[in-house]
Amino acid sequence: MAPEYRIEDLAQASGATVRTIRGYQDRGLLPAPERRGRANVYGPDHLFRLRQIAGLLDRGYTLASIKELLDAWDTGRGLGGVLGLVAEVHGPWTGERAGRITRAQLTAKFGGEADDRAIGEAVELGVLERLPGSDEEFGVPSPQELAVAVELYAAGVPLTAIAAQLREVRGQVEQMTSRFLEFTTEHVFARYLGHPRTTDAADDAASMVRRLKPLAQQTVEVELARAMRMFATRHLEGHLASGAYAEAVHAAGGEVAVQLPASTINAVEKLVGPKGVGAFIAAATEREVNKRTLDSLASPPRG
């Protein structure tokens, strides 16, 4: 005969409180007990459900998301498959591992003076995470992101400007991400949404998410590199042709150092050899300046 529980006995067997059990019932997370006379009687299914909920809470799921998962189970869609899909979506999207850093290390990396305001802003942005029970150590969800901030600060960018730039970039990336998800949902995941999500369908969707994860990152990386090359080239050309640059050349006695990317230097070396790099770049620059001068002379006057 299957065991039966009064609510106090169920609380003791499950480790939950009576108040918690009643709260789960009110939220629809726990089925109603069987009514026998004036008493409510619970069974093994209730105990199993309470243990399921406890396990999901330990894994970081909210009660709202647990409700969705349990509803999937109750309607025959398969909790195992749904959990696999949720775990895939909520799991890491890069191979980067989180790290830790002490307050003293942060201070050393950012100017040698403690800045609690800047630390608070970094926590707000998620660049740092406060660790329970510690005021002297922080979690670092993305060591790469923190390293970028360190390099920008070392190059002379104020912390306030770095934070503002991160907010702007994050907003733009979130817009791209939203569009990418709309695109993949329309063309890929629609097939899983048009019918009840069985275990097999959920498994297939989780596998598809696993395949698409690197594609999203690769697309952004490739397009960012393309845009950086295009705009950096325009920026450099604009400076080379500007009056400010000409004045700098004149002030420097006719010579000024221009730092070029290593990839550009390597490409020139392959064309003309190491000894011809300087002459090649000088000739290319002079040719571009002459071209722009002729273009300006050939252009009809405005007005």
Tell me, rounded to a whole number, the average pLDDT.
79
Uncertain runs: none
Proportion of β residues? Answer: 5-15%
What separation lies between the terminal Cα atoms? Answer: 99 Å
Main pleated sheet: 3 strands, antiparallel
What is the string of helix and strand elements? HHEEHHHEHHEEHHHHHH
Query: Which structural category do the helix and sheet elements fall into?
Result: mainly alpha
Taken from the alpha-carbon principal axes, the silhouette is elongated
Q: Could you estimate the helical fraction of the residues in percent? A: 55-70%
Report Rg. Answer: 31 Å
Number of strands: 5
Query: How do the strands line up in the largest sheet?
Result: 3-5-4
Number of helices: 13
Describe this entry's structure for a reader.
This protein is mainly α and 303 residues long. 68% of the residues lie in helices and 5% in strands. It contains 13 helices and 5 strands. It has helices at 7-14, 18-27, 44-58, 63-74, 79-90, 103-109, 116-125, 143-154, 159-193, 199-241, 243-251, 262-272, 277-298, and strands at 34-36, 39-41, 99-102, 129-130, 137-140. A 3-stranded antiparallel β-sheet has the order 3-5-4. Strands 1-2 form a two-stranded antiparallel sheet. α4 runs antiparallel to α5 (79-90), α5 (79-90) packs parallel to α10 (199-241) and α9 runs antiparallel to α10 (199-241). The radius of gyration is 31 Å and the shape is elongated. The model has no long low-confidence stretch (mean pLDDT 79).
